[in-house]
Request: fold
Amino acid sequence: MKKFFRWLGLGLVVLIAVQAYKTWQYAPDTVAVAQIELPQVDETLVAARMGEAIRFQTISTGEPDAVRSADFQGFLDWLVATYPFANKVMSRQLIAGLTPLYRWQGSDDSLKPILLTAHYDVVPVAASGLSDWQQKPFSGAVADGFIWGRGALDDKSAVVAIMEAVEAMSAAGFTPKRTIYLSFGHDEEIGGADGAGGVAAYFKAQNIQMAWSLDEGSMILRDVISGLGQDVASINVAEKGYVTLDITASAEGGHSSLPPRDTAVSKLAKAITKLQAKPVPGGLTGASKDFFDALGPYFSLEKRVLFANQWLYRPVLESVLSGSNATDAMLRSTKAPTMLQGSNKENVLPQTAVATVNFRIHPRDSIQSLIAHTKALIDDPEIKVEIRGGWGNEPSRVSDRNGEGFKMLATTFRQVFGDLIVVPGLTVAGTDSVHYETISDDSYRINPFVFTGEDIKRLHGRNERISVQAMAQAVQFYQVLIGNAAQ
Ligand SMILES: [Zn+2]
Reply:
């Protein structure tokens, strides 16, 4: 017995020593970037122009004719009038009439071009919450150090920052070696099929392939991930796919005074309960693992021990991460029942009851694998599972996090924003890169704006705004990026 305890003691010492060693080894990469002098930006001027851009009510409603409103045309004319040098050095064509595709010809045709992109359409403002806005949503007011209004974060700010950068550089006589394309979508908020989809079709027809593209899809996160003392630039290398399933239960109709044991509604309720009982399998593999592996070394010691010793703590770590909606969405495909439909009268038995479930598809899954997951959990051949509207987007490819484009972006972030953590991430919503990835070797998704948790709530929400400082830094970022990429 004594011997047993001696061995046990020795075993524990070895276990602790291995963990301590692995934790000690698990240190952040030290990345030194050459310090550069950042370009000067006139904050007041940029803020005023951003305000002007917001005043065009370029709202995507999904209604066929509303898109042709004067505001869309007005915004395009404004881009031409406001950025004369940029419009002189670049050629422009309009895709689908409303998405400008700019080309800044490089001097060296042997270099593959790159694409910088953003969208200028915005989501509508809910009439119910109007009085909660501190500034009117299309006022473009500059107040308290912020520029206010719809599109301030998503995504007119990126359009304006990119154009400001090109304007400043072209006015100073800069010419790129590498050809740079700029594309500003007019219909991203409703899928981007005409705008970004049209741009991708144009490039395909011309046989033009990008080395890489940069789009929205993430930001510089400040105080968003708890336990980190530094800002995080999550350069997203992939985005989730999208599909919605209609789940239908059927039964005999009739009068509700003589009901059967189960109605279509109660059958459906059981099916949804079974579907919701288990999450889609996921965990720390693939794109999820890359994100947390890159982030892990920066956590405080007690968390770092877990990340450094995933051979031992992976189940613990996965259960901690699935405890929060935000990190759970990084680990797996998600499912959200969003709509219900039964009989249209309280005393009529429904012949069918339908639940609509929206899925966001992790790169390890597919539309078909999620249909199989759904059918397996419901396990009832009488319940029908169909793709709503007959369409869905498969998850994107996972772009190279060791590629030239990623490295260049990482360097640029460090040059402009100083000491921050750069990680390869996953966009959990959809972006125009769904289209652009078809004509780019690699697609990266991040806007160079500092975001706090509070800002994220303003996306598509009330009191959308961007700080004047964040806007100016974004202009610097695109200038440095173009300088780095164009050599
Ligand atoms: Zn957007």
